[in-house]
């Protein structure tokens, strides 16, 4: 699966998470560009990440910073 | 796009000229990595059976940060596309890196355990697929925790933290955390060496005792690490309040 994440670094929070199937690589890349252009128009500085994983659970394990606060990162691993 | 055009694009982005045209050109460049990325990820998943999580294309924000921070040209950025593998410990890490290194003929290894980057520890395996680079990050769970921790601190507090700058107290605690991860790696290696030494014969009582001691040591240190991270959360919250 492909995941498009619009992430507000300063607040450490995801603004939007869009899911695409593996066959939608091109659509996902187009969507990433569309968000970046929209941010540009509005003068918003956010990170727009395009990630891929076998499942959302796998993504949440390997890219915890997008999904978790500092406090939950400190929970036992 | 030629290399010169690409580097000129990088220069414009570095200077803050993030026009729609430049964003579109950058996006086109990122797209060109799709084939190389798919090739490597397919091999890693199917030939090595490793579960990877990938970044199909580095975000504009991260590319801009990199161009501004380091004196690299856009054509030299090694991690436009890549993926990540998180393994249990340093022995598994060594095993996976060795397997990766045999996957293709064009591969280089950057071992950030021997030369950590501002405390960052991991092994990066970089594949060259017809001139395009795809980076595979191999991290142990603890190295990964450090990296996520450092990234999150950089996100919410100060983007310079991951480059070894920012508030002294945070920089110091990240250094200590990284040193602790290194100690865990030593314990993992010692434990594995002991187990291997006594694997073919019945464990002698003394060896068994030693292994138990090392395991207990490991658990105790891990519990202490979690406690210190939780304390750090409080300290960071307090620092953030003061800044506001």
- Look at the helices and sheets of chain A and give the structural class: alpha+beta
Tally of extended strands of chain B?
5
Oligomer: heterodimer
Runs of chain A with pLDDT <50, length 5+? Answer: none
Which range best describes the helical content of chain B: under 10%, 10-25%, 25-40%, 40-55%, 55-70% or over 70%? Answer: 55-70%
In order across it, which strands form the biggest sheet of chain A? 2-1-3
Order of helices and strands of chain A: EEHEHHH
State the end-to-end CA separation of chain A: 25 Å
User: What can be said about the biggest beta sheet of chain A?
Assistant: 3 strands, antiparallel
Could you tell me the radius of gyration of chain A in angstroms? 13 Å
Largest interface: A-B, 40 and 44 residues
Main beta-sheet annotation of chain B: 5 strands, mixed
Secondary structure tally: strands of chain A: 3
Average residue pLDDT of chain A: 93
How many separate helices of chain B? 8
Distance between the termini of chain B: 45 Å
Radius of gyration of chain B: 21 Å
What strand line-up does the widest sheet of chain B have?
Answer: 1-2-5-4-3
């Amino acid at each position: 699966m492909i995941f498009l994440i619009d992430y507000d670094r300063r607040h450490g929070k995801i603004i939007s998470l869009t899911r695409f199937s593996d066959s939608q690589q091109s659509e996902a890349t187009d969507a990433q560009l569309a968000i970046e252009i929209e941010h540009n128009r509005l003068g918003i500085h956010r990170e727009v990440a395009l990630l891929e994983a076998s499942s959302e659970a796998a993504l949440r394990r390997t890219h915890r910073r997008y999904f978790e606060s500092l406090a939950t990162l400190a929970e036992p691993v | 796009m030629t290399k010169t055009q690409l580097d000129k694009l990088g220069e414009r982005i570095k200077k803050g000229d993030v026009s729609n045209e430049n964003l579109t050109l950058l996006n086109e460049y990122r797209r060109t990595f799709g084939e190389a990325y798919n090739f490597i990820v397919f091999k890693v998943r199917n030939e090595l059976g490793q579960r990877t999580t990938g970044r199909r294309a580095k975000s504009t924000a991260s590319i801009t940060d990199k161009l501004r921070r380091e004196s690299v040209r856009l054509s030299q950025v090694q991690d436009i596309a890549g993926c990540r593998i998180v393994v249990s410990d340093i022995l598994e890490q060594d095993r996976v890196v060795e397997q990766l290194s045999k996957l293709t003929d064009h591969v280089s290894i950057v071992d950030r355990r021997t030369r950590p980057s501002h405390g960052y520890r991991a092994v990066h395996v970089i594949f060259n697929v017809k001139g395009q680079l795809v980076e595979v990050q191999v991290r142990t769970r603890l190295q990964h925790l450090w990296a996520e921790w450092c990234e999150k601190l950089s996100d919410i507090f100060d983007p310079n933290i991951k480059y070894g700058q920012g508030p002294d107290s945070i920089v110091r605690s990240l250094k200590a955390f990284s040193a602790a991860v290194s100690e865990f790696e030593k314990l993992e290696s010692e434990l594995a060496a002991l187990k291997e030494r006594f694997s073919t014969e019945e464990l002698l009582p003394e060896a068994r005792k030693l292994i138990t001691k090392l395991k207990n040591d490991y658990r105790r240190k891990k519990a202490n690490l979690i406690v210190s991270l939780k304390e750090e959360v409080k300290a960071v919250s307090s620092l953030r309040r003061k800044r506001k």
